[in-house]
Amino acid sequence: MKAILLLLFSFFSLTVFAQETQLSGTITDAATKEPLRGVSITVKDNLIGTITNREGLFKLTVPKLKLPFNLVVSSVGFERQEIAVTTTGQEVSIALQPQTVQLNEMVFAARRVNEGILESPVSIEKMTTQAIQENPSFTFYDGLQHLKGIDAVTSSITYKQINTRGFNDTGNSRFLQLIDGVDNQTPGLNFSVGNQFGASDIDVESVEIIPGAASALYGPVAFNGVLSMHTKDPFTYQGLTVQAKTGINHIAENGVQPKGLYDFAARYAKAFNNRLAFKINASYLSGVDWYANNFTDVSSQTAAAQRGPNNPGRDALNIYGDEVSKPLPGIGLVSRTGYEEKDLMNYNVYSLKLNGAIHYRISNNLEAIYQYNFGRGTASYTGSSRYDLNNFVLQTHRAELKGSNFFLRSYAVSENSHDSYNTRSLAQFINRDWVQNLDGQPVSPSEADNMWFTRYAHAFNGNATGVTASNHAAARTFADQGRFLPGTNSFDQAKEASIHNYGLSGAGVFSNSKFYHTEGQYDFSRFTKVIELLAGGSFRYYDMFTNGSLFDDKNQKITIKEYGSFVQASKKLFDDKLKLTASLRYDKNENFDGNFTPRFSGVYAINKAHYFRASFQTGFRNPTPVDQFINLNVGPITILGGAPKNSRGLNVYENSFTATSVGAFGGAFGAAVAGGKPFPQAVAENLNLLQKSNVAYIKPEQQKAFEVGYKSYLASKLLVDLNYYYSSYTDFILNTVVIQPQNNVYGPDGKINFAAASDIPGGKIHAFQLYTNAPDKVSAQGAGVSLTYLLNKGYNVGGNVTWSDFNLKNANRDNIAAFNTPEYSTNFTLSNSNVFRDFGFNLAWHWQSAFDWYGTFNGNEPGRIQAYSLVDAQISKKLVKANSTIKLGASNLFNNRVYQAYGSPAIGAIYHVSIIFNDLLK
């Protein structure tokens, strides 16, 4: 990284000598004849450009180019135009035609080259600059849910997860999120925490989403798709922009008073002589998070009919510590008294984003960029527990050289988990800090759980003075004597001590992990006239550090290297009506065999308004660093990642029994001993029940997908988009438990070893939870249709419907990633940016069907997500003379209490008002 920065700064010292051409002109609104400010004027196929001032005037200095060349003129809300420059000193006067919505937007992500969205070989969705500005949701990121085929899961006000085409999760490591080409995932979590550490609304220019496998161009993380966010170029978007937004949530909630939300953002950009430009961004969002307070009893050891608030063995979904339970003789299952999430989680969430970038145009077709992003915040995350990502920090450094036909980009991503913690573990540790024995003396944390159950049984059986016998409530009260109550000093002290204690002795989460990434691509099309040819490559280096709390990295480094390269060729045939594209990518992770991921596509244009497309795509996903290198001994079991080097010397993959066969052997051995047979005979008669495990080292997941689609653009009024896809999946990553004896599983005769079998009843064994892959094969299919229609007088109406279907086939559900996707979802939008005297409105409705959610938070047991609908709405008023806009809006207008993932909080309404000032100090 240092070498690259030195290289970039060395370019800054170059002086470019070239004869220059001066151009000037005026850009006006064809409808009103008024001058237009902020219009972008760029030289086609070059990086050089400028924007108009308040009077619609521009001046552009162009290094001498071979005449003629074209200028590209574009502005939000107007049709893009090109004009030829044929002489030096040419005066340019253009009247731009207004357009409420640009239906044939330019996109980049589908083929990594710019093209019209109608010509895209695969499904792609785009949120434009205008759509971001007029988005009715609380943030632009919240508004992504209204695009076709997009699923959103909210864990926190500051954390929403985006996914496409199934296998959804609250932390999605199968979906790639880019900001200006930089992977926004945290190195330790291995997924992006929504837009918590991303870009502010006022700096985002556009968002493109590819649903489905995109590994052929983007590598292993893009298994389920790509979300690519582009921020505003400081050459094009200059001046000061300030936004102030305030809102209110927790309306009409039981036990919670309404709370305020505050979102402030500022952006300043300045260009000097069309060579040097910079921008700085700062934004801060704060509020009180949604409360997770679903107290449904989900005890897996209690029959469904006996569950409920009066169940002594109750395990409430959002109460933690009560999952510690024990069957007591003559009493039944009893669980410890837990703590509600509100007493454990930090609900005062915030998101601080700071950003700065320097752009230097070395020549008219070579630009150097350095960008720094700093994000810090607090969010709630639903994983195997509810985690508090408390004061979590993510930083990125990006250095890039780019031209009109190439780029070379290098970036570094680092994290600091700071005060983050596991709320479930936190409750259990607090519960172990205060338990008294029967004489009223506190016991050690290691004895606390057993002593609590002893106290419970003592009281329930009538042995405690003054306590009613056979009364569960009275027994619990007796067992809870001395319990730390929320809000007391003793509770707060125990909570703080555990949060800052990492590993098995505390609830704290520690990670100072990093990764470094370099990639580049070059478009060779100008050299290969017969075909369009694009090639690129990448290298990534993970440097993990958890100080022994998650990996075995206290005295050794955990690093991972992976690299990849791709080539893409396109050819037009039949009078340019048919465009065929073939892509091939090869990726290699140092711990796995390499993967080839091809993609083939064809787009047929009946005419300029009707396009048919078909594609075959492949995807794969490397195991995450945690999947590969977790090495966590939790007492009776060790959780062990599946990279071969992670288990080196342990001999566990090679020498262990299946857990199922050990259970069968143990039962049969116990019955034999109970029947009077001696130990050796009981072992010998039943050892053939044991089976050697056959667990393979972990490897990447695989996907193959077919898609067909149709897009049409009718009378410059109607955009139609249809698609159908079918995908098959294999090698899903999963966990399996094995039992390792001290002796060899097989004896010299190749049969089950008597000594190894004897280790089991002798207690000379250890359990391992290993990461591996399932052999099962499943499939998914889906279809979508969207319509966007431009009505008269500036009205825009749109709608989309998505159908998703999952076929488990003959697979074991325990071996398959959870699909977690509604069968049907639909969106409807209606808007007009200027109904009357610069008053506008935007209305967006989302509905989705019910489905069962499977996740580790509830032990992979299903939890029902009911069908729901949301309405986001806003009205706006443009203050033209002040160049500002006031908005009054609502996310979830009717305040429906909506669960999007089982175990996560219910989401209510946010009512908000904002004012934004544009182009100040310009």
From TrEMBL:
Checking SUPFAM superfamilies in the record gives: Carboxypeptidase regulatory domain-like, Porins
Subcellular location(s): the record lists:
Cell outer membrane
Q: Name one Pfam family in it.
A: Plug
Database matches in InterPro entries: Beta-barrel_TonB, Beta-barrel_TonB_sf, CarboxyPept-like_regulatory, Plug_dom, Plug_dom_sf, TonB-dep_rcpt-like
> Can you list the GO cellular component terms from the UniProt entry?
cell outer membrane
- Single GO MF descriptor: siderophore uptake transmembrane transporter activity
Q: How does it sit in the membrane?
A: Multi-pass membrane protein
Cleavable signal peptide: 1-18
Tell me, in one coarse class, where this protein mainly resides: membrane
Domain spans labelled TonB-dependent receptor-like beta-barrel: 380-893
Q: Which residues belong to any copy of the TonB-dependent receptor plug domain? A: 119-226
Q: Name one GO biological process term.
A: siderophore transmembrane transport
Do you know which Gene3D superfamilies this protein is assigned to?
A: Carboxypeptidase-like, regulatory domain, TonB-dependent receptor, beta-barrel domain, TonB-dependent receptor, plug domain
UniProt keywords, alphabetically: Cell outer membrane, Membrane, Receptor, Signal, TonB box, Transmembrane, Transmembrane beta strand, Transport
Regarding protein family, the annotation reads: Belongs to the TonB-dependent receptor family.
Which PANTHER family does the entry mention?
Answer: HEMOGLOBIN AND HEMOGLOBIN-HAPTOGLOBIN-BINDING PROTEIN 1-RELATED (PTHR30069:SF29), TONB-DEPENDENT OUTER MEMBRANE RECEPTOR (PTHR30069)
What is the protein named?
TonB-dependent receptor
Q: Which organism is it from?
A: Adhaeribacter pallidiroseus
